Structures are given as structure tokens and as C-alpha cells.
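Q: Sequence in, structure out?
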Amino acid sequence: QVQLVESGGDLVQPGGSLRLSCAASGSISSIKSMGWYRQAPGKQRELVADITSGGNTNYADFVKGRFTISRDNAKTTVYLQMNRLKPEDTAVYYCNAVGMNLRVGVFEYDYWGQGTQVTVSS
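A: Exactly. Output:
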């Protein structure tokens, strides 16, 4: 009931910046939080940052001070501003939203976008 579409991934040199966007549609009024995860080849998916409907933010230690998560006023689009990028930031970045899913009958369901590739290389 929620659809997520990520954009903004690109090839960037170390030390560069990118801004990722995640647009939500569908039952957006039920969304409790949104966030960003990433998965590098051969590694598990890990939390990068998230933001609740109340505006509280949370960051992984490895991006704290470099990345910033934000949202628009309608709470339908979430951004991830990534600064001072490192080669180890290379991964597929996935948008996440927690909200209702009537198809499975739960109030807090994890929705996922299809991902956007971020590559940091010289």
C-alpha cells in the first residue's frame, strides 16, 4: 500500500557529495518513519539513518557528522545528503518506510524501494 522510489545515486569521487531522494506514494498517512539502508556486495543490509513522523533522527556511527536525513513538509519525500563520501560508502542505498499494510494485516510493515547505486571511486 506504500510505494517507494529512490533516485540520486551516481558515481562520485572520494570527498564528494550526493543527495538521495525517496518519494513515497499510496497510504502515506500511515507512515510512522522513513529511513535509508545500504548494502554493499557480499555484506548485509545496514541502517544508515532514519527519521520518525515526529522528526526524531537516528544515524549509524559510520555516517554521523557526514550524512543528514531530512523530509519535506508533507512527509512524503525523504532525503539523504551525503558529504565527504568515502570508497567504503559504495553500496546500493534503499529507502525504507514503516506503515500499515492491510494486505498482511499489520500496522507496522517495512516497505522497501528498489535501491539506487552509489559508487565512490577515483
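The chain has a mean pLDDT of 95.
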